[in-house]
DNA sequence: CAGCACTCATGACATCTGTCATGACTGACC
DNA sequence: GGTCAGTCATGACAGATGTCATGAGTGCTG
């Protein structure tokens, strides 16, 4: 019996996934969490064979929760389920020791098999994401550039970005301009969008 | 037995929802579609008691598919399932005759009950979304303003927006400026974001 | 038919954005 | 200790953006 802690902030989806998994005779969802903090707490409580976390959750996202579990050294393999299969996120997940990375476009019939594999010591990365990640550009941006693009995502003026980052507006303009040049785009918004799509932010 | 056609482009989620629903003794998922076009085709083929469509799908989204079903006059009630509960989308859905509007944060245990209600002639709107929609600003923007904000969402320059819309750049600047004034924001990106959040685009 | 709202456009202008140059400072590395 | 990359900043400048005014055309409504 593979005992699983499942985490997803969307109740309906989480319940449906639990229903799907509980159809399997060798798989049991022993606890469900609706955010990353609860996920880690329940995993520590239940010591499951496997943790299945949705990537996008409030507070600690799936990746941060996986990091916390790893830090706690419980040896619980983590499988991340994600709507947006962004290559940079996959890289970060694998670096974090995540054993499975499953886009929501994966056939439902395949999930149990993937979880069994991971439980048996294997890893799972969707072939398409793997290919995409292998050909993906390495992130050419510095930490500061990424941070400013994160803020720029909200659409505000350069001045408001500078206020939020506690920098001079000239400094922000320089950093964003540098990022735009590296990415070959024309506006900071395109740069932010690109960085998001690649999974860098 | 309530016969359902289910549509969602994310295989895993769709399969999980089907598993959840098929646990109910009086509910049966008779067909599954992964986009709006297939959803409408399968609904016409199977003549289900109910259609359950995810809002965000490629090609026809859930709303457009509901519109197509309504146009076909098959009398199939539609329930939309959505990740982002945006008030403008709810309004449009209800105008389109959608009988149920279910955010993914809804407890899984509640879905079957909601579907039974709708099948019995009722309607379901999540109370929080209903409240949000009732207090939501009416869309103050013209069709043209909305269209330009849609294009502006991608982050491109004014010039590229003008090219895509087949308008002069001055015209685009005027429309976007007008939209920004109406929404009380400072950049076109903030305007686009706001319009999206309200469900206007 | 007049008024109104919307669409489309031009033009003037102030401000914002992006580019480029430059330089000071810091920490890591050889 | 010198070099390098990253961080932060200032300043100059050209072009993009946003604001405002204005006007022509269209279709709808009372």
Automatic annotation (TrEMBL), chains A, B:
GO terms for molecular function: DNA binding. Transmembrane segments: none annotated. GO terms for biological process: phosphorelay signal transduction system; regulation of DNA-templated transcription. It comes from the Bacteria. The keyword Phosphoprotein applies. The modification 4-aspartylphosphate is found at residue 54. InterPro entries: CheY-like_superfamily (IPR011006), Sig_transdc_resp-reg_C-effctor (IPR016032), Sig_transdc_resp-reg_receiver (IPR001789), Tscrpt_reg_LuxR_C (IPR000792), WalR-like (IPR039420), WH-like_DNA-bd_sf (IPR036388). Residues 134-199 form the HTH luxR-type domain. PANTHER family: TRANSCRIPTIONAL REGULATORY PROTEIN DESR, TWO-COMPONENT RESPONSE REGULATOR. This is LuxR family two component transcriptional regulator. It comes from Tamaricihabitans halophyticus.
């Amino acid at each position: 019996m593979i005992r699983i802690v499942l985490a997803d902030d969307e109740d309906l989806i989480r319940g449906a996934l639990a229903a799907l998994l509980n159809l399997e005779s060798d798989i049991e969802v022993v606890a469900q969490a609706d955010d990353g903090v609860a996920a880690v707490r329940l995993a520590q409580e239940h010591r499951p064979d496997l943790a299945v976390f949705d990537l996008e959750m409030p507070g600690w996202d799936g990746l941060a929760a996986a990091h916390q579990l790893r830090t706690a050294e419980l040896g619980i393999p983590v499988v991340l389920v994600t709507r947006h299969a962004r290559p940079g996120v996959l890289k970060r997940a694998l670096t974090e020791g995540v054993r499975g990375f499953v886009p929501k476009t994966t056939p439902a019939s395949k999930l149990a098999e993937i979880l069994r594999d991971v439980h048996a010591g294997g890893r799972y990365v969707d072939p398409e994401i793997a290919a995409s990640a292998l050909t993906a550009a390495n992130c050419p941006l510095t930490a500061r550039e990424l941070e400013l693009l994160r803020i720029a995502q909200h659409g505000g003026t350069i001045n408001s970005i500078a206020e939020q980052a506690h920098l001079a507006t000239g400094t922000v303009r320089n950093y964003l301009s540098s990022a735009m040049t590296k990415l070959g785009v024309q506006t900071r918004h395109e740069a932010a969008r690109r960085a998001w799509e690649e999974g860098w932010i």
